[in-house]
Write a structure and sequence with these properties.
Low-confidence stretches of chain B: 193-197, 482-503
Distance between the termini of chain B: 50 Å
Largest sheet of chain A: 5 strands, antiparallel
Structural class of chain B: alpha+beta
Largest sheet of chain B: 5 strands, antiparallel
Shape of chain A: elongated
Strand content of chain A: 25-35%
Shape of chain B: elongated
Strand order of the largest sheet of chain B: 11-6-2-16-15
Mean pLDDT of chain A: 82
Strand order of the largest sheet of chain A: 2-11-10-6-7
Number of strands of chain A: 17
Number of domains of chain B: 3
Helix content of chain A: 25-40%
Low-confidence stretches of chain A: 200-210, 248-252
Radius of gyration of chain A: 30 Å
Distance between the termini of chain A: 37 Å
Strand content of chain B: 5-15%
Number of helices of chain B: 21
Largest interface: A-B, 66 and 66 residues
Structural class of chain A: alpha+beta
Helix content of chain B: 40-55%
Number of domains of chain A: 2
Radius of gyration of chain B: 37 Å
Oligomer: heterodimer
Chain lengths: 316, 656
Amino acid sequence: MVVPKFIRNKFFTWVDSRIPQDGATELRQRNIYILPTRYGWLMLVILILILVASTNYQNNMGFMAGFILLAIGMLSTFYTYRNVRELKLRVLKPEPVFVDQEARFLIQIDNSGEQLRSTIGIGTQKKQVIYFDIPAKGKAMEYIPIKAVRRGVLLPKRFVCTSIYPFGIFQVWSWFKTQQPCLVYPKPIACPEILHMSSIGEEEGVVSQKGTEDFYALREYQTGDPIKQLMWKAYARERGLLTKEFEDKVGEHSLLTWQSVAHYEKELAISYLTDALLQAERAQQFYGLELPHKKINKGSGDQHLHHCLEALALMP
Amino acid sequence: MNTKQLHIYRPGIIPMLIIVQAIVLVPLWFYMPLWISLSTIALLIAKYLTYRFQIKIPYWVIVLLVLASLAGVYLQFRTISGREAGIGLISLMYAFKLLEAKNYRDAALILFISFFILVTSFLFSETIWMGLYLMLAMVAILMGIIALNSLHGIQGLKNIGKLSGVALLQALPIMILLFFLFPRLPGPLWAMPSDSEAGTGISDSMNPGDIGALHTFDDIAFRVDFVTKAPSNSQMYWRGLVFSEFDGFTWREGERSPLRQVEQVVSQPEYQYKVQLEPHKNRWIFGLEDVVTPPNGVFLFNDHTWRRPQKVNQRFLYQAQSYKIDYSSYKLSDWQKEQNLKLPDASNEKTKKWAIEQYATVQSAQDFISLILNTIRQQPYRYTLTPEILEQEIIDGFWLGTREGFCEHYSSAFVFIMRAAGIPARVVTGYQGGEYNPYGDYYIVRQSDAHAWTEVWLEGEGWRRVDPTAAIHPSRVDVSLQNQVGARDDWFGEFGKESGLQLPTGLLQKLSLRWDALQSFWNETLMGYDQDAQHDWLSKLGIKHSQWRYLGYALLITILLSGLVFGLWILSKSRNRDTVEISYIRLLNKLKAQGFNIRMNEGPYDISSRLEQESPELYAASKPLFEQYIRLRYQKNYPSKVAIQHFKQSVSAFKL
């Protein structure tokens, strides 16, 4: 069905005004919507057919069947409504993902009622939901996967929680929001040329010029050498602490700068840097990132990688 | 709506659809042409096999089969519209749809169409059994729909059954209100299609000779409820058709015309009665003699029979009266006299000759009637339902030859003899007698009560009813028939003796009469509910004008009210009734109102200890409450009502 855009916008402005803004959404009258499904309309057509045929053939049994159907149709609104009422929905903070991966918004649904809530669907829109059950007095966790297309912040406008159970003739649904966006890292693309790392801003205690890829030489241990690069066999033979030196193909320097990729198209450049960061982390290097608007000092580890990637993701 | 997860290849969904279809189609199998019934059964089996062994039927095969069955329906009925053909066609298509069903949409379509198919079978039968079957089938279809719409499919069948049963029970009160309030229209909306099925009961002609065995059925022809008194059983002659033309083999209705003006009715009606006529697919309806004023929408003919403009395809309810009319001043017109004297030339000459000889021995027509009846009584005339077949000269063969037969033989021979002697006479068919049902105070007239008798025109008296069959000596009635329970015995009681009402005695008989009383109620009050009945009770409520408007109001109020009542009821059932929890949440809200932030991961103990640090005042006030709550929740014994009540009150009293 095509609804003019301004009407749709108006409608969703109204809807949004009814969605609680804080973390948890409880489904109640105020924010539960209900409409017949296409099978509801089908049932209405069949009901009318039955009543017309019953009138024509003066068939009272037909009337009985028709009115039972009508009554069940009416009651169905309540049955379906009952299935979602007083559910509490909470969106947990999603893990960051890379572009082209699926952002997974974990939803926790609490059912404080005495009845099992069967076949509850959640998703980004009514046509795209995942169904699951919520036990009585229990809770369920379910992901809403959204494919990340652009780097930066992914904050879906609204999620939907819906149900057509038990008869499939009415669909109830409610929208809910999250305040916790998913961070989308840029897509890593390997750079065709070796990125020259600048050694400006080199700090003490950091292995800077050496890489980790190919074995190069042995030298005396210096404080701060990565523990993996120690020559443990030599140490066992009491030859003192030796450090294996490697030559890194990426380059001598571990500070990744915007300069080195500035001649590429912007998004591509960001992707190259992303890939370089990942490689540096994989190689257990110490690395830093220098962007036009932000500089991140050298370091390593998941937290550090996240900071770097975040800076790239949020690059204006 | 998204239905990907609700596909029909979940375990059990397809067998469930097959079972629902079978339940819905079962009643139709008894009424549809055999090949259609067998085809639908075959399609259901085929579906099961393709499901079980994962066979895929090529699409073109299904298309071919559909086309073939379409052609079959057309060849059978010569049309594809109309009631019978339509039902045959829709049943076949319904079964084909399942054969090619592959997704949620197909399954939902099948299940919802099931409701319609179910209703079509009520066009054939509206008995109490069908009413019960309606409920059963409804539950089955609803269960199917729930299974289709549930992630678990048919798992938890018991639950699904319970849910459907409860839904049906909750729907019943609304259904009953709607049933009585929904405005009813008088007639059909479009012309009733003609029925290909032959009528039941008595037919529009009579061939006494060619019936080797008369099969009697205990099917009910109609039920009669006398408003005041009832005639004795032996006087209960239910007039249906009058045969005045005879060609030597077959009796038929002669030329007749509807009476515009009804004879002057001087007296009060002698009997008043209500009839529930079972559909017999013919136009005639039955009335107690003397038949005069026809019920609404029925015509009176000059042979004093009633005829409806349409066939009786549904149970027909009517009210009628019978009068005693003095016909002494009536004259038979010349053509009527001729019509009722006419005999085929050169046919049954022996009987003709015999009749003329006998007539010469008596003084009057009246004496002649007595003579013939006495002949039947004294000569070895036997009553049997399996007489010898007569091929020609059937009257001669019976009257002077075999001397055995049933009412048709006796009445046709009697009329033949009367006519041969120059006395106008005719054959009347209908039903005789009826079984009294003390539990419902009405009479049941069965197909086995079908009867043929005669009327003889006597100058100065009019048409007199003579029942020659009743003249047979009881000793010459087939033993098997003598023992039959029912009205047939009454004919052979003492000639002319009034047989009194005999109440049945056996337990089985009592039960069956009670059952019939229930059926009568079902037929008259529920299945017979129509516009007249609806206007009737509205009038009793004092609503005589704009009844439609009032019905509309009532209907609207019903729907709104029932919606409201059921809504509140259903919703209240799932409301949280945990008083402790509710009070605890109130307490937290009160703390929140004081500006104390409560985190989601905090239990009562955490909150309390944080309060101790952050807000000693609040802590002091709320400490006993938290302690109470922890005790209520975590103590070993189930908390007493008093303790819960105390907690509730303390929370209410909590203030700062």
